[in-house]
TrEMBL record:
InterPro entries: AB_hydrolase_fold. Gene3D superfamilies: alpha/beta hydrolase (3.40.50.1820). It comes from the Bacteria. This is Alpha/beta hydrolase. SUPFAM superfamilies: alpha/beta-Hydrolases. It comes from Cryobacterium mannosilyticum.
């Protein structure tokens, strides 16, 4: 997959500025254009090349005339006149198609430079603001203690006088969110959250009085030694003495019997086979294609099923979420590695990794570990921005612009071979009020996957073609696996 960045912008007209079917595809390089526009540029380049080929053919036709007539003596029936007219027409086709392609690339490069500059400046601003908060935060906190105390007392007395319950604040917040469903699906929120998450380590550096140039050099904008990973590790260090976010041993077992399966042909089928995040259900689906000794595999990983910070029997829990971001051997990661070995995946076998949410983060980490031969990876709504995929690996990360979960990965590494596909799900559609974070729902990502299959974007087509090459067309078998945590010590 080539290092080209493509991005689609909404058509004016709806809330949020456009259609919820617009795809944004970004990756290495500096081009930014809609997936359709990028396909048009490729078509124009192909037309330009074809025009050049026809000009060469016409030149060979001209040479076949053993007794050419000089141009001043041409008549309407002369071969030279016909060849000359054809040359002019084809040359104009090549010139115009090349000019249009150049114009598209020029505009795309300009937008790309502006977008990259805005991203860099936003990250730099977040670094400085985080560091500044860390430096002055303790002093502001001490100064605010009297005001906060007076405010708390006043709020308590006021609630008694008005008859409202002191604990009604969470209910009021829930009602406000129900009345303002766009609050958590506004694309500005994930963008700001991505910068905020990446700035936590800078705030910690400010608290520790580490000089700002040193903090900047070590952080996400520099060497990457500090960042989202170290911030998550800090959260674990604070929570585990309290008995929270603790990791335990994990065992893995097969759920049900193996069943026949056919190879997936595109993104829609990949997304459709990701296990749903249900308590007590299978979290890993493994498909095998080909005979023993030359098998190819697809591994599907589901999202978080348990949000309790305490130790439960579920490895796909909040503890694994934080531990995975911290790269500290999350229970879900260990369960996936064990399930793949139990299913028969050998280190040299080609593997396609697919995952949603936490499953996408774990899929990226399995690919980055190098313990298995991951050849393709597709993730949906995963906070995996900080995970560096191996060079040359065809990777597609799907992130909704109105989904805050991928932003929890911060401003991380972006490999040249990784394509990032974005869509604003609720750009023009009403936001559901009966469920939280609707843009993060697996059903929403499955719809985006269907749009990706219909997209003319060349690299998305290339991924689907590679999927068919790796898996072949013969039926295979599917097995399902469930990991269970050992009781906490």
């Amino acid at each position: 997959m080539t290092g080209v960045e493509a991005a689609g912008r909404s058509v004016p007209g709806g809330e949020g500025g456009g259609s919820s079917t617009d795809l944004i595809v970004s990756g290495g390089g500096s081009l930014v254009a809609t997936d359709v526009l990028l396909a048009e540029a490729v078509t124009l380049r192909a037309l330009q090349a074809a025009a050049g080929g026809w000009l060469e053919r016409l030149e060979r036709i001209r040479l076949l005339d053993s007794e050419p007539v000089p141009a001043p003596q041409w008549s309407g029936s002369d071969v030279g006149m016909s060849v000359f007219a054809a040359e002019r027409a084809i040359h104009e086709v090549g010139r115009r198609s090349g000019a249009l392609a150049d114009a598209l690339v020029c505009a795309a490069e300009g937008y790309g430079r502006a977008e990259r500059s805005a991203e860099f400046l936003g990250g730099l601003g977040g670094v400085w603001l985080g560091y500044l908060v860390g430096r002055v935060g303790p002093f502001l906190a001490l100064a605010a203690v009297p005001a906060l105390t007076a405010g708390a007392v006043g709020w308590f007395l006021g609630s008694l006088l008005t008859g409202s319950r002191p604990g009604a604040a969470p209910e009021a917040a829930a009602r406000w969110l129900a009345d303002n469903p766009r609050a958590l699906t506004n694309p500005i929120l994930p963008a700001a959250l991505r910068v905020l998450v990446s700035s936590v380590d800078d705030a910690a550096a400010g608290v520790s009085a580490l000089p700002f140039p040193v903090s900047f050099a070590l952080g996400d904008q520099g060497a990457g030694l500090l960042g989202v990973t170290t911030s998550a590790a800090g959260v674990l260090a604070l929570a585990r003495p309290l008995g929270l976010l603790r990791e335990t041993g994990v065992t893995v077992g097969r759920v049900g019997r193996p069943a026949p399966a056919r190879p997936p042909t595109g993104f829609a089928e990949l997304a459709a086979r990701i296990p749903a995040a249900t308590a007590g259900g299978a979290q890993v689906r493994v498909e095998r294609y080909g005979p023993a000794g030359s098998a190819a595999w697809v591994v599907y990983l589901g999202g978080t099923a348990e949000w309790s910070p305490g130790v439960t029997a579920e490895p796909w829990d909040l503890s694994s979420n934080v531990a995975a971001v911290a790269e500290e051997g999350a229970g879900s990661y260990r369960a996936v590695m064990a399930a793949m070995r139990e299913a028969g995946v050998r280190p040299a076998d080609p593997v396609v990794q697919v995952g949603h949410s936490q499953g996408g983060l774990v899929a990226s980490q399995v690919a980055a570990s190098g313990e298995f031969n991951t050849v393709l990876i597709a993730t949906f709504g995963a906070p995996n921005g900080q995970v560096e995929v191996p060079a040359g690996l065809a990777a597609v990360a799907v992130e909704h612009a109105d989904d805050i979960v991928p932003a929890l990965g911060g401003i991380g590494a972006r490999a040249e071979d990784r394509l990032i596909v974005r869509r604003e799900v609720f750009a023009t559609e009403p936001v559901p009020v009966d469920r939280g974070l609707p843009a993060h729902a697996l059903t929403a990502y499955r719809e985006t996957a269907r749009l990706m299959d219909a997209s003319p974007e060349p690299r998305l087509r290339e991924f689907r073609s590679a999927l068919g090459t790796v898996l072949g067309g013969e039926p295979g078998t599917v097995s399902r696996w469930r990991g269970v945590r050992a009781p906490g010590d």
